[in-house]
């Protein structure tokens, strides 16, 4: 047998006991208590709105606010006692308020309000606070990337396509690539925040407020930028959750690619970077192992965040307007994604600020064949069409291979001339990696000036 129904706010119509498993199944308090603060603040401002309407007296308001602060303190100090019938954070807080200030006054706080506009309000406040925190951590992370990029601007390494050596780049260019991704994430998050920060409060269960509450006043009091203009939308809209989950998924997608590169660069075969001990672990069997677990987790956790997005999209698909209990399924994926993203940003920041690079290995991985394009460009500068020079450069690569030379740079000027008479002695100047990266000085390129300009532009956006 389950517990009596008297604690339930909606208990009036329900006399029978419910299935205890149903109580568990229905309850969201185990996870939505995370929003206790938003819920209490929401009630505080809502009751101010009621008082303005003369629905509660100023003495009652004072008592309510005092009670709310007492409850807040209980949550903060871990002394809030949950009781049977506390279905969610909203019912728990209201039940407790009644115990502290008496049911007569506490019974007025929900006038004209429904848990439908209440939960939507709490969620938006909660999401807003979390996104603001993420913005701060993200900007710290980007700052570490750009700082490192400035410090190590002189280090060259291979750039890859298809994970095959392609053209020389600066290590800083790689750092700046991800700093660019994360800066776009930062800007995208700010845009999402604008849509998150709208107030559903005062929409009631679905049809609006019967006492003409000042919704602008409520919105302002809760730090919202605007009021959601339709009461049905106000209670049913979870796009802000979906957008947050999408943002999180995309961010984790970027982080997983960033991590994968670093995992590859940290292998003995590459040896470009070494993770600090703080972000690696050993093997329980093989004493020599140092594993990049931090990066593997960053890569792996991207999957669970993507799962949260797709799961919740499935939950909301085809539900009728307006509030339906399916929507309670917004919380666990959202909370999990926010925590995962927050920790991931902090771990990635730690990894990138403590790893060490091996300049010799990075530059040692550059090979002369990576300058085959530069060789083609050499002839372009002498007026030969690129399609032709591409072919000629290919001939040089093949000839060097056939002659078993260690690289195309080892062909003599005579051998170059034999392949194409337009080659001259200055062809040797092509075979310099630094010259190659410096040539690419257009916006976004590998030249030092171009990379520094990127870093400056990124820093200016934060
Ligand atoms: N715990 C519920 C949720 O998160 C609160 C809203 C309940 N509303 C309702 N009509 N039963 O969705």
How would you portray this structure in words?
- The chain has 462 residues and is mainly alpha-helical.
- It folds into 3 domains: 11-106, Fumarase C, Chain B, domain 1 (Orthogonal Bundle); 124-364, Fumarase/aspartase (Central domain) (Fumarase C, Chain A, domain 2), CATH 1.20.200.10; 368-431, Ribonucleotide Reductase Protein R1, domain 1 (Orthogonal Bundle).
- It contains 19 helices and 6 strands.
- Helix 7 (115-151) runs antiparallel to helix 8 (171-196) and helix 8 runs parallel beside helix 19.
- It is elongated, with a radius of gyration of 31 Å.
- Bound molecules: arginine.
- Arginine (ARG) binds next to helix 7.
- Arginine binds at residues 28, 32, 88, 115-116, 119, 323, 325, 327-328.
CATH level 1 class label of the largest domain? Mainly Alpha
The domain tally reads: 3
Order of strands in the sheet with most strands: 1-2
Q: How far apart lie the N and C ends?
A: 58 Å
Q: How would you spell out the order of helices and strands?
A: HHHHHHHEEHEHEHHEHHEHHHHHH
For the biggest sheet, the summary is: 2 strands, antiparallel
| Global structural class | mainly alpha
Question: Which ligands are bound?
Answer: arginine
Nearest-integer average pLDDT = 96
Residues in helices, as a percent range: 55-70%
- How many β strands by DSSP? 6
Q: Find the CATH topology of the largest domain.
A: Fumarase C, Chain A, domain 2
| Uncertain parts | none
> How many distinct helices?
19
Which band does the percent of strand residues land in? under 5%
Q: Architecture of the largest domain in CATH?
A: Up-down Bundle
Shape: elongated
Q: If you compute it from the alpha carbons, what radius of gyration comes out, rounded to the nearest whole angstrom?
A: 31 Å
Pathway: Amino-acid biosynthesis; L-arginine biosynthesis; L-arginine from L-ornithine and carbamoyl phosphate: step 3/3
Organism: Candida tenuis (strain ATCC 10573 / BCRC 21748 / CBS 615 / JCM 9827 / NBRC 10315 / NRRL Y-1498 / VKM Y-70) (Yeast)
Catalytic activity: 2-(N(omega)-L-arginino)succinate = fumarate + L-arginine
InterPro entries: Arg_succ_lyase_C (IPR029419), Argininosuccinate_lyase (IPR009049), Fumarase/histidase_N (IPR024083), Fumarate_lyase_CS (IPR020557), Fumarate_lyase_fam (IPR000362), Fumarate_lyase_N (IPR022761), L-Aspartase-like (IPR008948)
């Amino acid at each position: 047998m389950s517990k009596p129904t008297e604690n339930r706010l909606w208990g009036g119509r329900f006399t029978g006991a419910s299935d205890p498993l149903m109580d568990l199944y229905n309850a969201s308090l185990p996870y939505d208590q995370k929003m206790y603060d938003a819920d209490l603040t929401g009630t505080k401002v809502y009751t101010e709105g009621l008082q303005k309407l003369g629905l509660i007296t100023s003495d009652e308001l004072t008592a309510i606010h005092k009670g709310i602060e007492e409850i807040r303190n209980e949550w903060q100090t871990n002394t809030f006692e949950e009781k049977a019938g506390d279905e969610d954070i909203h019912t728990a807080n209201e039940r407790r308020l009644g115990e502290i200030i008496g049911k007569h006054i506490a019974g007025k706080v929900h006038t004209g309000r429904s848990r439908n506009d209440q939960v939507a309000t709490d969620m938006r406040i909660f999401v807003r606070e979390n996104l603001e925190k993420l913005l701060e951590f993200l900007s710290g992370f980007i700052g570490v990337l750009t700082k490192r990029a400035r410090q190590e601007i002189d280090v060259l390494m291979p750039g890859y396509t298809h994970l095959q050596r392609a053209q020389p780049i600066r290590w800083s260019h790689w750092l700046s690539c991800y700093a660019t991704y994360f800066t776009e994430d930062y800007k995208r998050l700010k845009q999402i925040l604008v849509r998150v920060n709208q107030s559903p409060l005062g929409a009631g269960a679905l049809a609006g407020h019967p006492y003409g509450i000042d919704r602008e006043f409520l919105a302002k009091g809760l730090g919202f930028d605007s009021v959601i203009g339709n009461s049905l939308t106000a209670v049913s809209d979870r796009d802000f959750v979906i957008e947050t989950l999408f943002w999180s998924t995309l961010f984790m997608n970027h982080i997983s690619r960033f991590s994968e590169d670093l995992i590859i660069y940290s292998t003995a075969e590459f040896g470009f970077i070494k993770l600090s001990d703080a972000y690696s672990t050993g093997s329980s069997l093989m004493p020599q192992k140092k594993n990049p677990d931090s990066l593997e987790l960053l890569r792996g956790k991207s999957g669970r965040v993507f799962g949260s997005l797709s799961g919740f999209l499935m939950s909301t698909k085809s539900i009728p307007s307006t509030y339906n209990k399916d929507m309670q399924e917004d919380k666990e994926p959202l909370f999990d994604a926010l925590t995962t993203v927050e920790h991931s940003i902090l771990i990635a920041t730690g990894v990138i600020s403590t790893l060490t690079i091996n300049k010799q290995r990075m530059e040692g991985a550059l090979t002369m064949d990576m300058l085959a394009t530069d060789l083609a460009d050499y002839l372009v500068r002498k007026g030969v069409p690129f399609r032709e020079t591409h072919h000629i450069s290919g001939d040089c690569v093949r000839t060097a291979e056939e002659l078993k030379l260690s690289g195309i740079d080892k062909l003599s000027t005579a051998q170059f001339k034999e392949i194409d008479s337009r080659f001259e002695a200055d062809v040797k100047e092509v075979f310099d990696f630094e010259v190659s990266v410096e040539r690419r000085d257009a916006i976004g390129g590998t030249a030092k000036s171009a990379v520094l300009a990127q870093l400056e532009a990124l820093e200016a956006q934060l």
